[in-house]
């Protein structure tokens, strides 16, 4: 089996990365940074997001596992003092795979047929570069509302505990193939109206955002922020691809939610 390790880059994560690499090589696993079967991310959720984007072109061939060197992460759920256990499990046992849904976003532009496709593990957000964001929101080709406000956030189920949660969105179990659209400070009065609640869309529904006035936007995809000019539309749907996590022990989603947000 071929492995790669990504580190957050701080000294604690780097030390742990080197230790794991030595252990795994001792177990005769092969280090392959370009075509790994398994990617170990050492740091936090942000490090796993980075690893996901680095290996997003081979998601069907790569499984991920996360070690956290700070607080308990949603994706990074192994502790540094468990790494010997993790190394033995990696080297000796066939691991289970758990798949989580991803978000596909396609940005199309005013001129020409050019488009950009992104995959997100957590979410994609859209904000105006200047002033209020005004967007027509279409669901399955039907006009749903004209949104006015700070921004919109489309998240995956595993991303529902991240930015989406801060926006008052629901936490969705990642076994459900769905996306969630949450509002950021919508303008609601007698003139302007939005639904005001987060929407949960099933896998076969497409959501399209179409600019009403301004056509330049700040679009985020997980930790990445990009400026898009002359945007014609932004299309969201559940991606065909999934992320695969290697599971060596049970750590149910609701327990992670409990341990992260209630107590542990
Ligand atoms: P960061 O360093 O600002 O950390 C963001 C925090 O979000 C970290 O504590 C991380 O552990 C946590 N996080 C990331 N993914 C999570 C998930 N799926 N469930 C629960 N918590 C999660 O930024 P980063 O580490 O580069 O992560 C980027 C993420 O930050 C974005 O994808 C977005 O979800 C999140 N974010 C949140 C807010 C907010 O809550 N108001 C604002 C901006 C970005």
From TrEMBL:
NCBIfam families: PRK04885.1 (NF003424). This is NAD kinase. Pfam families: NAD_kinase (PF01513), NAD_kinase_C (PF20143). The keyword Protease does not apply. One of its GO terms (molecular function) is NAD+ kinase activity. It comes from Peribacillus saganii. GO terms for cellular component: cytoplasm. The keyword Cytoplasm applies. The active site is at 45 (proton acceptor). Its EC number is 2.7.1.23. Its cofactor is a divalent metal cation. It is found in: Cytoplasm. It is an enzyme of class 2 (transferase). It catalyses: NAD(+) + ATP = ADP + NADP(+) + H(+). NAD(+) binds at residues 45-46, 122-123, 148, 150, 185. Gene3D superfamilies: Probable inorganic polyphosphate/atp-NAD kinase, domain 1 (3.40.50.10330), Probable inorganic polyphosphate/atp-NAD kinase, domain 2 (2.60.200.30). Involved in the regulation of the intracellular balance of NAD and NADP, and is a key enzyme in the biosynthesis of NADP. Catalyzes specifically the phosphorylation on 2'-hydroxyl of the adenosine moiety of NAD to yield NADP. Its main location: cytoplasm. Belongs to the NAD kinase family. Keywords: ATP-binding, Cytoplasm, Kinase, NAD, NADP, Nucleotide-binding, Transferase. InterPro entries: ATP-NAD_kinase_N (IPR017438), ATP-NAD_kinase_PpnK-typ_C (IPR017437), NAD/diacylglycerol_kinase_sf (IPR016064), NADK (IPR002504).
